[in-house]
Amino acid sequence: MTETITVGIGPLSIADVVAVARGGAQIELSDESRAEVARSREIIEALANDTVPHYGISTGFGALANTHIPLEKRQRLQRSLVASHAAGSGAPVEREVVRALMLLRISTLATGRTGIRPQTLELYVAMLNAGITPVVREYGSLGCSGDLAPLAHCALALMGEDEVHDAQGRLMSTSEAFAAAGLEPVVLQEKEGLALINGTDGMLGQLCLAIDDLSMLLTTADIAAGMSVEGLLGTDDVFAADLQALRPHPGQALSAENLRKVLKDSGIRDSHRDPNACTRVQDAYSLRCSPQVHGAARDTLAHAVTVAERELAAAVDNPVVTLDGRVESNGNFHGAPVAYVLDFLAIVIADVASMSERRTDRFLDVARNHGLPPFLADDPGTDSGLMIAQYTAAGVVSELKRLAAPASVDSIPSSAMQEDHVSMGWAGARKLRRAVDGLTRVLAIELLTAARGIQLRAPLQPGPVAVAVIDELAVPGPGADRFLSPEIESVVASVADGNVRAAAQQAAGPLA
Q: Where are the transmembrane segments (predicted)?
């Protein structure tokens, strides 16, 4: 049965955004929302007939805000606004991103703070529920005055124009998709063009999706690190709870707890507990400091969740209809709060991936892997083993470091210097999505490498978590060289789908 989420006066959750964007959940408007939308629309219509100009209602936009628009030109004004702002360029962005931004714009419209007409909002809801997804292109948003071009392409679809993908993913004209779904386009009235395009919904939607991905990937990073510690004959003593409590960062404690669970009941670990037999005093940083790095990443993610939840509770438009009935200009459309955390998460990803790649590399170096063959090869020299898998991880990490350069420190003035400082939050969101994909791949290569290293420790037996993860990866064990790319992509899919985390939790119990 398809999930239905009520959109109304209260904020959506991150889980709601993910359910609609990725899970195809349906939405419905609350009765309270419908009443508030109708009430605020009455205020806008009263101002539309006022002899005093009101921004966005009877004036132009941006640098043209002082231009009064006569009544007979106002429908044309709204269409001109949307059509001119639907100036995106480049490849279409992902369906889940467009569905997320559509939902978030609907959520703001449903607060009654924008002055949208009820019938326009109802059509937006129907379009989303029908699975009709406007074509939104890669470039066009500066992350200020809203994600203008992305949202304008969605608004253009409400008017029956441009192209969309239907629920089956087929590209077609909007008019064709609307006809098939039994929908009628709208003719926008005063203020509606602004209400449809003036929000941070694109960057916020992508932040919510990244939070969902990273909540899974940071747990997977702990699993991979634990298996690397196991396969490299490292110690779990440094992950003891009392040692971690000496530096009381919450994320660090959670990561250390995960690592203890991953290494529990490992015969490989037990094989070198005797201090008289193990001469190493301490492990390398990439093993020993995993909780500190992964934990800091978790705390950064928790901050991002806080920002996202605040933004989900916001009503972003300009001007807005206040609770007491005023229509006021404001600067809440500026994307800085979201842009900063999008950049922060890209930095975190680069560092977590960099540490993962270093653990992978240790497995392959005979001088550091404590008795394993060079590159984990079956016949070193004839075989190269996982040598080039590390190259792949290193190439991805190098790109992640470039993607960690913040977008939010840049600003290019626009609109004849009226919009003279912008957030570039959309650009931060786009590079964060690429970074999430890169981290997925780097962790997959570490898991593939750790699995082979652990298997080469036979007859020593790994712990239950490593056994469960290796079974889930379902790739051939050590042996002569073979075509490696399909194995890497298979593990990438297992990581991305959450199957690695699920397998580990079946063996270990809940992991943070």
A: none
